[in-house]
Design goal:
This protein is of the alpha+beta class. Helix content is about 20%, strand content about 30%. Helix 1 runs antiparallel to helix 2.
Length: about 140
């Protein structure tokens, strides 16, 4: 029955998501488990991808928190198109695929590439073009 309680607590914690800070998640999880695990008994482990898991030594993973993700929605791409410039640097490094719009029309992904925060166009945008990007970071 305790395993079912842990599964329910993990599910509810996932629903609570980023609204809780790390210490609040530990306290909340402790309360949901009826005091079976103390906050001092949990160890937070963060992966290089930014995923945090709370582990009770000897028992396995109890909860996994989603990484912090922000959304850039149709932001203006910094830089001034001039018909020859093909590289532009986004203000944040994307954690997802990038969608680029020129003058409100979405480009085919084969028309540009992204490396880190740098967008490189196959054909340079014109001086009159308005460049916007949408991505997670």
């Amino acid at each position: 029955m305790k395993n079912l309680g842990i599964a329910v607590a993990v599910f509810l914690l996932a629903l609570a998501g980023a609204a809780l800070g790390a210490s609040n998640k530990i306290n909340w999880l402790t309360q949901m488990l009826g005091g079976g695990v103390t906050a001092t008994g949990l160890v937070a482990v963060t992966t290089p991808a930014g995923v945090t898991a709370w582990v009770a030594p000897g028992t396995g993973i109890l909860a996994v928190a989603p990484p912090t993700v922000n959304f850039a929605n149709s932001i203006n791409v910094p830089g001034t198109p001039n018909g020859t410039l093909v590289t532009f640097t986004l203000p944040n490094t994307p954690k997802s695929s990038v969608s680029i719009d020129i003058n409100g029309l979405t480009l085919d992904p084969s028309a540009f590439s992204v490396s880190g925060a740098v967008v490189t166009f196959v054909t340079p945008p014109l001086a009159t073009d308005n460049l916007q990007a949408t991505y997670l970071y």
